[in-house]
Amino acid sequence: MAKLVALHFGNEGWQVDTAMDGRAGYRKAKSGRYHLIILDIMLPEMDGMEVLKTLRADKVATPVILLTSRSSEIDRVLGLELGADDYVTKPFSIRELVARAKSLFRRIDTIRKQEGEQDQSDIVSGDLRMIPDKRQVLKEGSPIELTAKEYDLLHHFARHPGKVFNRSQLLDQVWGYGHDGYGHVVNSNINRLRSKIETDPAHPEYILTVWGVGYKFRDD
After folding, report:
1. 119 φ, ψ (degrees, to nearest 5)
2. Would you place residue 133 in the very low, low, confident or very high pLDDT band (cuts 50, 70, 90)?
3. Architecture of domain 120-217
């Protein structure tokens, strides 16, 4: 399958590297500079979920599309919770996979364009500073390593202080698509984000829970 995927993406003008097992894929993804990772869950040596989890723990923010089994909703949900940007279920056509990759980049480009149209001045709240033109976040002057999705989520909140967003709105506005019943994907990403930006994640100061509704960024 990897060779077939590489062939079709190559025909679309992409430069493609392949790896035949999870460990080799992890090493390439960590050491190389890639615009996209297509990751099959079913890999020898190191399965795709472990690869994804380890990459995100290592602060590798490259967008990831997971290839999952149609019958395994658990895999799809877990993959999104671990930081995947999208998934394609097997069996699939290569055309569909290429189309999903292009769609993912359109969503990313839309977010970047929206950021570019917004005021690029720093956003300061408490001891947290966001530098939009560098996509950088500082806490007490020290940089915080965020994945691309974590940054997008924080930036979206910080641009709308005090505004309450429910999970469906966040899936639509930050992820670029909605998945009924996948609101806990938002919860998981917010929990990881809190663990990085909050002094005490159990008592957050920045991303606040509005019980029964959703979340909001504190309004200074």
Report:
1. -55, 125
2. confident
3. Orthogonal Bundle (1.10)
